[in-house]
Amino acid sequence: LKMSWFWLYLPLHLLTATCLCHSIKAPTTSSQQSFKTNLFHFYHSLILADGKETTVHLLKDIPKRYYFVLEEGRVLAPFSITVTPCDVPIEWSILVYKSPPGKAAPGDHDTQEVSKSPKASSLVSTIFSYKGNSVETYMGMSSHSALYLLEFLSTERDTHITVYLTTDTTSGHLYPELPTDPRIDVVGIGHTTVTLAWKHSPSVLQHREGIQYCLLVNEKHNYKSLCAAETAIRSSGMKLPPTLALSLSPYLLEPQQVMILSNSELSIINKVSSGEVRQVCMGTKNTYTVPNLSPSTQYYFDVFIVNLLTNASAAYTGTFARTLEEPEPKVTELQDGKVIHVVLDGKKQKFYSLQYHARHKKIHFTFQLCRGQIRIHITRNGKTVASENLSGLRYFSLKGKLLDTYSVQLRSTEESNSSVKVQASPHFHKPLFPLLPESLKIKSFSKLRTCRSVTIAWLGTQEESKYCVYSKRIAEDQIWRELQSADRCSGPESRHKSEKVLCKYFYDLNPQRAVTTETIKGLEAGTLYLFDVYLFGPSGIPVRYHSKVVKTRKKC
């Protein structure tokens, strides 16, 4: 747009139009007023930039106008205007102001005149109008002797939109292209997963580096544009990064957001009042399986093709799907005093149900978490009596009536395998596990470390029990795996004989003094060691203390 030429051209053009209006012999009063009003709109409008996406903020019931003209010297020129509502439906239209008869440029026949009058009213015509919240694009041919006015109006509430005008339709597109069939196909539905597929965007095939697909998952409805989705999430009280593509910066996350990065895919989960809103960017893959969904729940899926260089995006036609109902878990009967070892597959079988028919009023439930993360839920005759996440060893002493029915539901809270040992018994039954100390942590004394020895300590109890210490050398890159993958229910029988250090008995009637220490000698300098302590009770079932990693001094 040649600005210096434009400002000279505009007053002259308007003056010519104004004079022409007065030269018409018998215009109606309404025609005069309408034309003068339209000319007045130009003086209170903004210039719409060519080749740049413009954000327009609209106040309720107050129209906003933008105008543009083409570069001087071009007789016919194609142009396109794309308007993206970012919230509520809006009304928008394009009006064209043409030169008087005799000076009309080719292409004027493309406009649709508002009035049949060949006189003053023919100078102004509406060539396009729309009302709704879809992304709409108008493409047309323009004459250099015409000016165009865009008028936008929101009648519901304050909102914002984006407007993109371009007169260069040959050098590329700001927005990524959609395929001829922009639908998202649901190709698989499970209890907690939905698999989606969509046709490739031509932009991905042409510019693979700067383009990526992003998926939005929510429980409310589909969104027709990326800015509409972001506006809806912000209105729920959450601050979002400017676009899905920019969500790759972890420091932009809010406290209500959780970021998961795996297999080169970025997932961001937003905790909002209407449920979770998930954003997943998966590069140029056009299939994706959405994991960790809730059973028997309807979800809405939107795929956006995002230009990482311009942050412009285009939306596929959204779809929805309902996950399958969770199958009724198999119920296992608990017998008095019998220990059941339950293993849960975090991907296939996340639930396990146990049932116990009480033959006594007082009942004890014992849970020993062996691996992973598990949540337990206990009901008596259908009413909840306990519900919590397991950590180590846990006892529940419950009092009810004879023949009460207890149901125990175990649920894995992570995708990896989890396991737990469970026992139900009357209150007078021989306890499965030994009396436990207040803490199962092992302490090491830094000042007592030498190049060849380490001193550790742990708490005991008021009853005499057997404690066995085991140790083994580990490399630094093995620490995390050893601590995370350890089976906390396994006993010394799973250890190599060479790892056994000693066994000892001790107790103290005063819990404050039930502490024992042990110095392990014959170690190598500057070496990492993993220490474990096993506590044995009357039943012979061991309880493993939390493993402790200690490094001997390198120099003494």
UniProtKB/TrEMBL annotation:
> Its Gene Ontology molecular function terms?
heparin binding
Subcellular location as annotated: Secreted
Domain Fibronectin type-III, first and last residues per copy: 176-313, 434-542
Could you name the domain of life of the organism this protein comes from?
Answer: Eukaryota
Q: Which UniProt keywords are given for this protein, alphabetically ordered?
A: Glycoprotein, Neurogenesis, Repeat, Secreted, Signal
UniProt signal peptide: 1-21
Q: What SUPFAM superfamilies does the record point to?
A: Fibronectin type III (SSF49265)
Q: Does the keyword Glycoprotein apply?
A: yes
The record's GO CC annotations read: extracellular region
Q: Give yes or no: UniProt keyword Repeat.
A: yes
- Gene Ontology terms describing biological process: nervous system development
* Main localization, broad class: secreted
Report the PANTHER family cross-referenced here: NEURON-DERIVED NEUROTROPHIC FACTOR (PTHR14619), PROTEIN NDNF (PTHR14619:SF9)
Task: Indicate what this protein is called per its UniProt record.
Answer: Protein NDNF
Q: Supply the source organism's classification.
A: Eukaryota, Metazoa, Chordata, Craniata, Vertebrata
